[in-house]
Amino acid sequence: MAQQQSQAAPNAGLEFDYIVVGAGTAGCLLANRLSANPSHRVLLIEAGGRDNYHWIHIPVGYLYCINNPRTDWLFRTEPDKGLNGRSLIYPRGKTLGGCSSINGMIYMRGQARDYDHWAEVAGDDAWRWENCLPDFIKHEDHYRLDGGGDADAKHRDFHGHGGEWRIEKQRLKWQVLDDFAEAAVQAGIPRTEDFNRGSNEGVAYFEVNQRSGWRWNTAKAFLRPALKRDNLTLWHSTQVNRLLFEKQGEALRCTGVEVERDGQVQRAMVSGEVVLCAGAIGTPHLLQLSGVGSRELLNEQGVELVHELPGVGENLQDHLQIRSIYKITNGKTLNAIASTLLGKAGIGLEYLLKRSGPMSMAPSQLGAFTRSSAEQTYPNIQYHVQPLSLEAFGQPLHPYPAITASVCNLNPTSRGTVRLKSSDPRQAPAISPNYLSSPEDRKVAADSLRVTRRIAEQPAFARYAPEEVKPGVEYQTDDELTRLAGDIGTTIFHPVGTAKMGREDDAMAVVDSRLRVHGISGLRVADASIMPTITSGNTNSPTLMIAEKAAGWLLAERAQ
Length: 560
Description:
The chain is of the alpha/beta class. The chain has a single domain (15-559), classed as FAD/NAD(P)-binding domain (3-Layer(bba) Sandwich), CATH 3.50.50. Helices cover 27% and strands 21% of the residues. It has 16 helices and 25 strands. Helix 5 (129-138) packs across helix 16 (540-559) and helix 13 packs across helix 15 (478-488).
């Protein structure tokens, strides 16, 4: 079995071929792929604990995992001017499986143009859509191909079967969502059969990473099978304090990591490479703690500069969702069902017996991608629609039937930062998304709220006599709607870009097109932080694709 015991001596025998930092979405896949060769000694390190908390595995349990110190880092953003001075909770998974253990479970790749743009930025056709598609397919186990036979032929070019990453239909339907979808069609948004073929324009129920009504996280999919191998060592509940480096002539090499484990500071050394999979917040923070980043920032925090890379922690991008709430009549939503003990008991019983119903719900059920205005040349906004409403995450459902239609700008031009606040690795960094800081983003925010209104006004939704509770019909001008977007907007938990990929002549690039950190050998990044620009949709599945590519390159180079 894989080694999970404490080491008796701080530095005795701790040398590995690969060290993967972060057992989240990317790290679990990488650990699986790298340890598949029994000659590779692989160490996987996770600051969080095991994923044995029951709410991780029940889909609706995200409500109890987010903002819970057992499963979440409990980050908060700095007060944000674009949000009228508000600070937001900023959930990041702190457990085996990382964000895949607490996220919305939505399977979404984005658009082909996202990856074609990455290829141009990086100067490497390996990132083009047609060259990323095999990396998505490789680990898929898609329900559309369960039956086999000719009926599935049209799906085989886009989906895989038999891989580790299970994708299923949601196990519920709501009439109010069906009617909202029909209203979207009447508003000019086509129906779609599949969001994941390169153009996600259209309206449909989301597909989810679940298996038979349970959350399917990367710890179950990739890590548990790999832990049967003797050559994979897992250290959970282990804080990585810093990366270790040494000069080899004029070259700089990463030689291992310093960790705090069981109250003891230890070093683990590497003969091959350290791969950072700590995410768009954790990866730049660890680089900065280790002396890699902006000279000015590190000097301010008393961290010795090891290697100057000013782009570390810059280029933060996220999807800001703007939540419109519509009170309805003549319809059923979760607000009413979950308001009584009998209703709650029925919900629990349905899940117990069938693994279906509200307890099997992803946070959002119905999705739509469209244009915020006629001048947009491609779908640039995404809807997450829910048969419920509440004032804010973690607060009770409203006492009246209502739906929430959240809309986000898929391609924000605002850029934020993740910056070291202390040389203490246990102090969280300063997270400043700088939402709505560009004129383009403010215009899209206002326009997207008008699109929501247009959908709600269609005949298919008229039977519900919808009443706009948020933001409120009294707000009509661009300035009013932008200010309201700042009041009601919140993160949809998709931070990326803080160790971006780019050419060597790009002063703000942190990694090259093969994810090697510029100027340092033996060190790569394989997580959402390498995205030069955010994908046009949920970011979990693109992160798995990135890890799949990284694993392929690492193994190919090792074999040379």
